[in-house]
Amino acid sequence: MAANLSTWTARIWQDIQPTPGRWNGALRIVLASVIALILLMTLRMPFAGLAMYYIFLVGRDSPAVSLRSAMLSLLTVSMTIAAVLAVVVVTDNDPMSRVLSVAAASFVSGMLLVSSTTPGFAVIFGFIFTVLMSLWETHAPAGPLVKQMLYLLGAVSLSVGSVVFVEYVFGRRNAAEELQKERILRYQALETMFSLYAQGADAAQLSPAVIHVSRLAVAGQYAMQRLYNIIVERNLDPSMLPIGVRVRITMQAQLLDVAAAFGFQYPTLSDPALRQRCAHIANLCHYLALDTVPPDLRKQLAEEHAVGPEPTLLDRVDLVLHDIISMPMKGDLATSKKLIALPSRQVPFLIPGALWQPQTIAFALKISFCATLCYIIYLAVGWPGISTSTATVFIAGLGTSGALKQRLVFRVTGSLIGGLIFALGSTVFLFPHMDSITSLVLLVIAVVFFSAWLVGGRQFNFIGLQTAFSFHLVVFAGFSAPTELAPPRDRLVGILLALVIMAFVFDLIWPVRNVTAMRNSLATIFRGVGVLLRESAAARTTAEFLGPADSFRDLVGKTVASIRTMNDTIEYEFGVDRIQHQHAGDIILRASLTAVAFFWNGYAVLHREQDRDFLTEPGLIKMRAILANGMDAMAQSVVRKTDLAMIEPAALIDGSLLTHPRYGEYVQNAIARFEELQKFVTQLRTEP
Predict the structure, then answer these.
(1) Membrane-crossing residues (predicted)?
(2) pLDDT value at residue 264
(3) What is the pLDDT of residues 306-339, one digit of tens each?
(4) What share of residues in the chain are helix, strand, coil (percent, to 5)?
(5) What is the pLDDT of residue 37?
(6) Of the candidates 515, 503, 470, which has an alpha carbon nearest to the alpha carbon of residue 404?
(7) pLDDT of residue 282
(8) Residue ranges per structural domain of the chain
């Protein structure tokens, strides 16, 4: 017990350490909050607490991203208000129709949460719909209720407008350059650490380097993905970056994770063989920082890549490096900026094929059931204060049991900090002595900065969001200082009610374990690659192939990032088989990274019209057809845990193409990655 507590304390301490851009981001949130607070209090706008929380939801990646996110937020709120009014008018405010509309809106929200490329707005729709529909349960006159709903739109407009203003004044301008610096910084930190291991440095010399790597690992991929989002939203010149930079960010984050774990496990290193491997890794990181790896180093890593079913931490470092180096980098291919960053306008709103999948419908049904049940309960008992139960369903409603438990734990923790400690503490000890808006502003600055700092972390950022949410809802329930202690208590009771209902539905009645969801995600990648391999043979022009390939490319990047996140939350699963689930999760994550390398090796070659012969060569068409069947077989094996009929390399291609001066490298890379994937899938057959 003491060891577990010590581990969690260390993780929390690591997560709150300063990381690149964290100060800047937290201070921008504070400034936007202060501006919004002054405007909301001056104009006496209802729903001030909800509007203040919106500041944390609007994208702050760049001025352009903030403006687009703000417009989408206002559009979502406007559509939700229109939907509520339509239900009330058409049904003449019938009570049963209100309940059924909540069920329907929750179902739609759940469907979009899983199947859209902007899931945050699906959450906003469901949450705002239930909040506004509950107003009509008060039986107040229609005029004031409609006015209140429009006030919500005005309050949200002021908040998101404050965010956009701050971002246009202080936002990032050179996102591509910043992203490249962040990538180089991480590779240089890895190079320094492994160089010290190779030199036999003592613990005192190694400790600062290991701590530096661990802090960068704790920072995760979030900040770098936001920089990538700036590039695609503003269509900036990404030519200084390597091909497939989005998935490279995820790969590099995984590399830092395993490297940091290795650093903490080995204070020093005396084994000559291990030191030699560390020297090789340091050399690779040096060249990766330059976005070029000499062919001899690529070949050396490929020869040393074979590891057993139970890889050591250093083996895992080699495995991730192998996946990174397997992807195309620069050279002639870098002339196509589209390979580096896909413009956001080419990303569809709905994930192709995801809307009507059985797991999407099942998830939406669970969300709808939980939200409707919470809505009915708090109306039936006549306790409006526990309406946070419905909000919790949308805020914490994730597809897997591990992710759900993590969110619920963090939701309760954030509510205790923001609602009971900060809001209740302020009500008892501070508000009786506060007589001006200046003191209120100072209080909000302190709480918002604390919340924003937590939001900047990788592991516990959701606690920061819920701290701000709970504090704002309690403190800004009206236009005067709160004097009652019941609101914090009621909100906590509502959260606990949702926790019980969601745990019962998501974990007992209809559970989806993290590993199950990860298997489905990996199978989605396999099936998608199989479809593209077949379409490459049917496409009459390169443009016909690139349309679906671009959509799938975006899906691959998001799916791999999702798999990595789900792997992090396996530890929140309960049961004696959690260790086995973690082992299976590691294999799935490694397989997904290899699948990404497989996809990019083909995509980078087939994207150019001048390489049309790669699409029309009969031997390559035959190979891709066999690979497509193999991908489908692997997808089925991963999901159903069935035996996989291994396809030998000799059956894939005519031997003459392996050494062909033009096609040889493409063929060799495809076969090598395919063999690795088959090994991963074979290992997964015996895993839970």
Answers:
(1) 29-57, 69-90, 121-138, 150-170, 375-396, 408-431, 437-455, 462-480, 492-510
(2) 84
(3) 555 677 888 888 888 888 887 877 655 444 566 7
(4) 80, 0, 20
(5) 92
(6) 503
(7) 93
(8) 16-171+357-509, 173-356, 531-688
